[in-house]
Amino acid sequence: NSSYQLSSVPLQILLYVNGIYYIFYFSATLAMIVYKSQVLSYPDDFLAPDLALLFVMAILEVLRLYLGSKGNLTEEEAPLGLSLVITVGSVILSVYFLVWQTYVLKADVILNAVLLFTYGLGSVLKVMAIAAFVR
Question: Which chain regions cross the lipid bilayer (predicted)?
Fold first, then answer.
């Protein structure tokens, strides 16, 4: 049975694409926060937390992608499961930037909608991969 490859190619591709997209997402969101702080009357009390949450999200994203990739390639449930748990935190932060940040631009809505879609798809693929590894 150990001769079968159980790791998920679609999941691996999605994790790779997610990594590239997140670099774009982070850069665009950071640029928009800077733009909003210059152009709009961004309350100082909210600028630091918005920036801090973006950096926390970046740290979570690196961990999520690393553990997801490692778990998939080594066909281990634990890192993949942990990546799935971290996805919950990433989803909450994405929803924050979609709904609750100080100013939400149309670009924020588009960027976060795409990110949430990839989180959903990735979660389904992770659950399927974990199910395949456990058998």
Answer: 13-35, 47-67, 79-103, 109-134
